[in-house]
């Protein structure tokens, strides 16, 4: 049975970032219930700028 110093629950962006920061200090495991990490909010965020967002009124204000 493997032993770890830290157990991170969730493999999204926050869980991955915490695991990254803890890695120099011991063995880290990430517990994720989905088939792949970053499946929910992390994986579905497009994080893009869409220039055509909004109608003519929005374009006049920007």
Describe this structure in words.
The structure is a single chain. This protein has 62 residues and is α+β, with helices and mostly antiparallel strands. The protein has one domain. The chain is 32% helix and 13% strand. The protein has three helices and two strands; from the N terminus they run βαβαα. It has helices at residues 13-22, 41-44, 56-61; strands at 6-9, 28-31. The chain has a two-stranded parallel ribbon with strand order 1-2. β1 (6-9), α1 (13-22) and β2 (28-31) form a beta-alpha-beta unit. It is elongated and about 60 Å long. The model has no long low-confidence stretch (mean pLDDT 83).
Features:
two-stranded parallel sheet; 62 residues; 3 helices; alpha+beta; elongated
The largest sheet, given as strand count, sense and whether it forms a barrel, is:
2 strands, parallel
Strand content is: 5-15%
Calculate the terminal CA-CA distance, rounded to whole Å: 58 Å
Q: What is the ordering of alpha helices and beta strands? A: EHEHH
Tally of individual helices: 3
* Backbone CA Rg: 19 Å
Mean pLDDT across all amino acids: 83
Helix content: 25-40%
Count of spatially separate domains: 1
Q: Which residue ranges are poorly predicted, with pLDDT under 50 across at least 5 consecutive positions?
A: none
Order of strands in the sheet with the most strands? 1-2
* Total number of strands: 2
Class inferred from helices and paired strands: alpha+beta
